[in-house]
Amino acid sequence: MSEKIALYGFERSPPVRAVLLTLNALNLKFEQITVDTRKGEQYSEEYLKKNPAHTIPLLEIDGKYISDSHAIIAFLASKYGKDDSLYPKDLYQRAIVDQRLHYETGVVFQEVMKQRLRPLFLCELPQAAADEAIKAVCDVYTVLETYLNQNKYMAADHLTIADLSLLSTVTVMDLVVPVVAEKWPKLSAWLVKLKQLPYYEKANTKGLKELKEAFKPALAKYKI
Ligand SMILES: N[C@@H](CCC(=O)N[C@@H](CS)C(=O)NCC(=O)O)C(=O)O
Q: What is the rounded distance in angstroms from the CA atom of residue 93 to the CA atom of residue 162?
């Protein structure tokens, strides 16, 4: 690989961690450039030129930019995968991976994490709304359990970028609503298996540890 790769973002962000997991799965060298959204760094003039949508992650590759974790990980797997297993070339198999990625974008991250879990995390909700948020998380787990009844991994019988994307968010939701084997046996086993990936610790645990600390007041306040 001769291209120069840089990843903008910080590790608390699940979509940033999805990219970190993929970069590590592909054994790629890259530079990490901190953009802390808590400090509003995504709104700097310089960053907005690179990503007008002011989101992290952002990938820079030889002076060109790609935003959105799903677009980034599909690009990386297509360009650097030693075969097509992470992002299959077969159009039906690829459509299944894409569907899981869209589900992660629209439902898991945007609807459940951003709109429901974030206010819970900020202790802004009454208990009834917290109950709704928890139910939304359980609904996601049930959908994922069904995917895992169809395949050994989220979108195929082997690891794909759909697993890496969902792993970054499910590990956060698991901090609030634990994925218990009694209710979601396949999802629970999937989590255990993915946590054994050789690059898991390096790519996913730093941001997660910080979030675990940050979640403590909410976990003390609500009955979950
Ligand atoms: N669908 C996007 C979501 C990215 C996103 O919303 N990231 C959050 C941080 S977790 C962010 O950049 N928020 C700051 C902002 O939108 O201004 C992706 O997967 O990259």
A: 11
CA distance 160 to 33: 26
pLDDT digits (tens, 9 = 90+) for 129-185: 999 999 999 999 999 999 999 999 999 999 999 999 999 999 999 999 999 999 999
Say if ligand 1 is within 6 A of residue 57 CB. Answer: yes
Closest residue CA from atom 10 of ligand 1? 13
Buried (b) or exposed (e) across 78-102, using 16+ Cβ within 10 A?
eebbeeeebbbeeeebbebbbebbe
Give the Cα separation of 221 and 33 in Å (integer). 35
Q: Read off the amino acid at residue 159.
A: L
Work out whether strand 5-9 and strand 58-61 pair parallel, antiparallel, or are unpaired.
Answer: antiparallel
Residue to probe by mutation, ligand 1, list 13, 55, 165, most atoms within 8 Å of CB: 55
For the domain covering 5-80, report its CATH number: 3.40.30.10
Interatomic CA distance for residues 177 and 159, integer angstroms: 24
Query: Apex CA 159: angle with CA 158 and CA 161, to 5°?
Result: 140
Class of 91-221 in CATH: mainly alpha
Interacting residues of 132 by C-beta distance below 8 A, sequence separation 6+: 116
Domain boundaries, the chain: 5-80, 91-221
Helix (H) or strand (E) holding 156: none
Distance, in Å, from the CA atom of 89 to the CA atom of 97, rounded to the nearest integer, reads 11
For the chain, how far is it from start to end, CA to CA, in angstroms?
47
pTM for the predicted model, two decimal places? 0.97
